[in-house]
Specification:
The chain has three helices and five strands; from the N terminus they run H-E-H-H-E-E-E-E. The protein is globular, with a radius of gyration of 13 Å. It is an alpha+beta fold. It has one domain: 2-Layer Sandwich (YaeB-like fold). A five-stranded mixed β-sheet has the order 1-5-4-3-2. A hairpin with a 4-residue loop joins strand 4 and strand 5.
């Protein structure tokens, strides 16, 4: 997944675009997530699932803790000219193990 991580970060250095779904998810009242927090996941986080056959093109699920120490997951897809952030969410214990990297 190291190659995929490099592709994600290289695409993000060019430009990051957000789908409407991602923007809506970032602005859920209980879990408002900033652009800076998303950038933190992209540039300091890790890929925990890889989806090479995704219908939108190769995509992956990334994870990191924000500076506020809350876990954040993003699904993104690296393109030639940009990184598309498809969605994001704050993972919960009912769906993820304590490490927030492993599904229940």
């Amino acid at each position: 997944m190291e190659k995929s991580l490099n592709e994600v970060r290289e695409a993000a250095r060019k430009k990051i675009i957000y789908t409407q779904h991602a923007l809506d998810a970032m602005n859920v009242e209980e879990e408002i997530v900033s652009y800076e927090e998303i950038r933190n996941v992209i540039f300091k986080g890790e890929i925990i699932e890889d989806y090479p056959e995704d219908k939108r093109g190769h995509s992956c699920l990334m994870f990191n803790y924000t500076l506020k120490q809350r876990p954040v997951h993003i699904v993104c897809s690296p393109k030639q000219e940009f990184l598309a952030v498809i969605t994001m969410y704050v993972p919960t214990i009912d769906k993820w193990k304590d490490d927030f990297r492993t599904r229940r």
